Amino acid sequence: MGKIMIDIGHGGSDSGAIGNGLIEKDINLKVGLMIYNYLSRYDVEVGITRRADIALSNDARVELVNSFQPDLCVSIHHNAAASAEARGAEVIHAHYDNYDDKLATAILENIGNIGMPKRRIFTRLNSRGDDWYFMIRRIWDNNTAAIIVEGGFVTNSKDAEMLKKEDFLMLEATAIGSAIVEYLDLKPKVGNWWDGSMERMKTEGLIQNKHNGNEPVSWGEFATVISRLLDKLQQ
Ligand SMILES: [Zn+2]
Fold it and tell me: Which is nearest to 147 in space by CA: 88, 89, 186?
């Protein structure tokens, strides 16, 4: 089974880009968690570098990814520029590869299809001829593809208007997630991991119907199930 790491840029004291009332670290987290949930429906192991508003050093971030040994690491970012005119999505891939650029192209195409302008796909090298961005330079090798997505400019009012909407962030996550699914040819999970437990709860009379395991449970429902369980234990 394949492995994908979702790397959520910035966090904690590191806000990332700021503009038009948006803070990059927050949008990254929302989109990243949505991509995580999207990919969790597929037959692939998904990791994530952060699930909360916490700061990660570059070393800690790289260590999290490299110890997970993913086939693909996708870093989620949103952009800023000195000029408020700069807008659109960018995808950065490793310079010395012959496959990452296909994923980069697919991601940018998908993001373009939801209305965010396609700015560019690019690679960047430092003076030593290595990849400029540490999340590519220190992650990418022949076993691990590494991509950085910049989903639009918080400093551009039109991009920011889109990025402020939760619905748009969901579309962005789906655009990125579906490109990954196609690129890695992922298959949907057969059945659900909770099916067995749900069946048992129903058989034991703790619940009347099987539920969607992704749905939240209210305190009322939780108390009812525990109460039925206690009744059974006391029988
Ligand atoms: Zn960033």
Answer: 89
Contact 140, 100 (CB under 8 A): yes
CB under 5 Å of ion ligand 1: residues: 9, 16, 77
List the chain domain ranges: 2-183, 195-234
Expressed in angstroms and rounded, the spacing between residue 193 Cα and the centre of ligand 1 is: 34
Which residue has 């039109």 as its token pair?
A: 158
* 81 CA distance to ligand 1 middle (Å): 11
First to last CA, the chain: 44
Selecting from 3.30.1490.20, 3.40.630.40, 3.30.1060.10, 3.50.50.60, what CATH number does the domain 2-183 have?
3.40.630.40
Distance 222 CA to ligand 1 centre (A): 40
For residues 78-102, give the mean pLDDT. Answer: 93
- Ligand 1 center from residue 190 Cα (angstroms): 36
Indicate whether this model's pTM tops 0.85. no
- The tens digit of pLDDT for each residue in 140-163 reads 988 899 999 999 999 999 999 999
Q: pLDDT digit string (tens) for 38-57? A: 998 899 999 999 999 999 99
82 alpha carbon – ligand 1 mean position (Å): 15
Dist. CA 128–CA 130, nearest whole Å:
6
What's the 121 CA to ligand 1 centre distance in angstroms?
16
Confidence (pLDDT) at 24:
98
Average pLDDT score over residue span 223-231:
95
